[in-house]
Amino acid sequence: MRTSLIGRRRDAGRNSGADRSRLALRDLLSESAAGVLQRPARSALTALGTVLGVGTFVAVLGLTATTSSQIDSRFNALTATEVTVEDTGGAQPEFLANAFPADADRRVERLHGVRRAGVYWPVRLGPEDLVRSAPPGVGGAQGERTAVVAASPGVLDAADPVLSQGRTFDAYHDRRAESVAVIGAGLADRLGVTTLETAPAVFVGDRAFTVIGIVADVERRADLLQSVVVPRTTAERIWGGPRSGERAKMLIATELGAARQIASGVALALDPAHPEYFKVVPPPDPRSLRATVTSDLDQLFMLLAAICLVIGAVGIANTTLVAVLERTGEIGLRRALGARGRHITVQFLAESGALGALGGLVGTSLGTVTVVAMAVVRDWTPVIHPVTVLAAPVVGLVTGVVAGLYPAWRASRIQPAEALRR
Hints:
Layout: H1 2-18, H2 25-38, H3 40-77, E1 82-87, H4 104-109, E2 114-122, E3 131-132, E4 147-151, H5 153-158, E5 161-166, H6 171-176, E6 180-184, H7 185-191, E7 201-204, E8 207-218, E9 227-231, H8 232-239, E10 249-254, H9 259-270, E11 278-281, H10 286-326, H11 328-336, H12 341-378, H13 386-403, H14 405-412, H15 416-421
Parallel strand pairs: 4-9, 6-8
Antiparallel strand pairs: 1-10, 1-11, 2-4, 2-10, 3-7, 5-8, 6-9, 7-8
Helix pairs in contact: 2-12, 3-10, 3-12, 3-13, 10-12, 10-13, 10-14, 12-13, 12-14
């Protein structure tokens, strides 16, 4: 009799457990889809935050990878092909104003792998030597303090200039110490030099120099754009050679891969008897330089992408919370029919997760299109890592689920009686 009673209680317990409501996966998916499609406009606006966040995430990472690739090629093509030689003057530099020989350009250019080379130094001007477009006191021209650089013909060629007008001076001008000058486009605008057809001149103090070239841009030595560049022999005739504290330097443009080899032998080529007069500065290791720059870009862009994702998550959370408040009656009815609190939680998480995943897919597509379009416009090679494309929809899904946690918890706390009274 006792055994029979215990058995009936166990059966009652099992029957009671069987009567508890359950939410099957199929029902969950159908209810979530119905909740999303019931208000399509609101669902689209809710997913828009994730679209923008994930799209920015993909675009930022893709553009970072693409620009990093361009940085690689830029460093390989420019930084790795530049060698600088500084005149130290040896142990007693005060007794040797300029250690570079007169034919320094030709000596270095004989080395295999050298494209162009030239010697230059800043000219020390007096306080009255302002740069004007007219002689002092004529036409009311205002002078400005501008650097004047003495350079051999090879310097401008090694700098790889882009000329907007005219030409650079050559060995003829240097040999005859001609009073000619090459200036940057910005300086030309400030001085009012708009055309070279009238053979305009610039005045350094009361000395006139005919402008034969205007440089729009240079690949190396960007400071030349803000300077008046005159032939080396002309500067020596007027102002003398380099002075203490402003010693001459040499700029060497090499073929790709030859810079370090040239750096090891250029001092001997300049002066076999006294190579110690020169300090050779080889190009930096491009790998470490690239790593530093790309790391900075990655950190900056990742922060921007994270901010966009947070904004998208806040948008989903806000819209989902409003939806919970509007659907209080529906939630109360479901609870009255037997739905448990966790069923409501899972349903709202599924809805927010679906919106996040949909936004992630659309955002991934838009981000990829943005990267490709930017690369086409800039004539670059688009670079997008497959991991980024595969992870972006997952990021959208996780963003949607995280954003829906609080609204789903609020929905599960609604009591059926209170909800039905509203």
